[in-house]
Specification:
By secondary structure, the protein is an alpha/beta fold. It contains 8 helices and 12 strands. The longest helix is centred in the C-terminal third of the chain and has 17 residues.
């Protein structure tokens, strides 16, 4: 995620004649006040904010000095203009494509911290699609905390069996390791569709999020703002959403229906 976003932002910065430097803010790194001093001393006027953890909910800089755009991190205040992958569209697209492939018990598994950082968008996308489905085909999501990650090899199978899940959707590609630890075979025991297919998994079914384009668009928007001297927090926040696209893969093959029986 981070290298792709950075590559897109860097390419756009260079195309507009700007340089791109990275400053790490947070526990064990720069404090906001120190960052503010550094940026002011160096004459930096444009700031991109990206990949903030949920334990940092506010970044106190002297925003009147800067043009700024957020990359996702929708939980972070102030409410600056933002560019984000469209996770709501990603979740809805995954639900629709999997149903076309024959799956009916589609379960979302994701971290509570991701839900907060992304404005609950994965969960909302699933709920919107479930609203038009029979109740018997609606699976409650498995929302786990980061502290519960070591327990996922137990939690995932328990949730699967309780709700008869036939395909899992998740932005957590680490679940491939969880499946192996739990002894779950893909797609024999359960199918899987990633909500964020990375370049290194060409065999995985799911939605590809365009992280590079997100970084590119955010930097392009920032370049326009710096040229127009648009500093400070806007009166009304705008968010640009970049859609993802579906990728077929062996982890969620089509399900064949014949004489009332389903099998992969």
């Amino acid at each position: 995620y981070q290298p792709l976003v950075y590559a897109g932002a860097k390419a756009a910065a260079e195309a507009h004649g700007h340089a791109l430097d990275i400053f790490v803010v947070g526990h064990g790194h720069l404090a906001p006040a120190r960052l503010n001093t550094i940026l002011t001393a160096r004459g930096v006027t444009g700031v991109l904010l990206s990949t903030f953890e949920i334990d940092i909910e506010q970044l106190d800089l002297d925003w009147a000095q800067f043009c700024a755009v957020k990359i996702e991190s929708l939980h972070l205040t102030p409410n600056l203009d933002a560019v984000s992958n469209d996770q709501l569209q990603v979740a809805r697209l995954a639900m629709r494509r999997l149903r076309k492939l024959g799956y009916r018990r589609i379960g979302l598994a994701t971290a509570r911290e991701d839900q907060t950082r992304l404005g609950e968008s994965f969960g909302m996308g699933v709920l919107i699609e479930q609203a038009s489905l029979p109740e018997a085909e609606c699976v409650p999501p498995l929302i786990f905390s980061l502290a519960e990650v070591p327990m996922l090899p137990r939690l995932i199978p328990e949730w699967m069996h309780e709700h008869k899940v036939d395909v899992i959707i998740s932005n957590w590609n680490e679940l491939f390791d969880v499946f192996a630890t739990a002894g779950l075979r893909l797609p024999q025991d359960v199918a899987f569709a990633s909500l964020d297919v990375p370049p290194g998994l060409p065999h995985a079914a799911g939605v590809v999020q365009n992280h590079r384009l997100v970084g590119q668009r955010a930097m392009e928007q920032l370049a326009i703002m710096t040229d127009a001297y648009q500093r400070g927090v806007p009166e009304a926040q705008t968010i640009t959403y970049i859609p993802g696209y579906w990728q077929d893969g062996t982890t969620a093959p089509p399900r064949v229906r014949r004489a009332g029986v389903e099998w992969n």
